[in-house]
Design a protein that fits this description.
It is a single chain. This protein has 182 residues and is mainly beta. The chain has a single domain (37-179), classed as Immunoglobulin-like (Sandwich). Helices cover 13% and strands 36% of the residues. It contains one helix and eight strands. The strands form two sheets. Strands 3, 4, 6, 7 and 8 form a five-stranded antiparallel beta sheet that branches. The chain has a three-stranded antiparallel beta sheet with strand order 1-2-5, with no helix packed on it. Strand 3 and strand 4 form a beta hairpin. The radius of gyration is 24 Å and the shape is globular.
């Protein structure tokens, strides 16, 4: 290999290193509010049949995008004391209300009993001890027994999330989805 070729390889190598540092140095952290912000991404449905009982369930998958400035989203399994204790209003950090269409109006879906909820908990999302902005997608799966609905029932959902500092996100509404579709 000639000296000219060796020098050319060095120049290319150093140029790549310089370009890498330039790109990394240009990265700036996004600036989000410390109050979570969510937006609706999508909703999907699929039907599952239990092979033993032949009962059918509609599984609804809801996707929302989140942004949080200090990244304190999600709960550990050990977060079950104080304000996160079962029975307390903040035990669940994913609040969901279900609405059923009746004519042109959506009404809250009656719950089977007062202790029943569609709310849920999602796990801690950030690195421990780091207060960095977070952005991503949360996916929630909810199943409904088809026998609970008349044919072609239309549902939609309202959702909000809480962070560990108990900041409440905005509330979003999903598009409509048909359960027990014939």
């Amino acid at each position: 290999m000639s000296i000219k070729q060796k020098n050319m390889k060095k120049i290319i190598f150093l140029s790549l290193i310089f370009a890498t540092f330039l790109l990394v140095g240009c990265y700036t952290k996004p600036e989000f509010s410390t109050t979570p912000n969510i937006s609706f991404v999508g909703i999907d449905k699929f039907t599952v049949t239990n092979p033993l009982t032949t009962s059918r369930e509609d599984s609804i998958i809801i996707k929302i995008k989140f942004q949080d400035g200090d990244g304190d989203l999600g709960l550990d399994q050990g977060d079950t004391l104080g304000t996160f204790k079962r029975g307390q209003p903040n035990h669940f950090n994913y609040k969901i209300s279900v609405f059923v269409k009746n004519g042109a109006i959506f009404n809250p879906l009656p719950l089977p009993d007062p202790s029943f909820t569609y709310d849920g908990r999602f796990p801690r999302l950030e690195d421990r001890g780091r207060k960095n902005p977070l952005e991503g997608i949360l996916t929630r799966n909810i199943s409904f027994k088809q026998s609970s609905f008349v044919a072609n029932t239309i549902l939609k959902f309202r959702i909000k999330i809480y962070d560990r500092a108990l900041n409440v996100s905005n509330e979003i509404e999903t598009s409509e989805v048909v359960v027990r579709q014939l």
